[in-house]
Amino acid sequence: FNSPITQLFWYYNQNEKFEEIKGIVEAVNNTDFTIGKLLTINSLYELESWCTSVIVRLGNGTIIHGRNLDFDNADAMRGITYNARFVHGSKYSFDAVMFGGVVGTYTGVKKGAFSVTENQREMITNEMSLFENFVMLLSGYSEISWKVR
Question: What is the pTM of this model?
Answer without folding.
Answer: 0.70
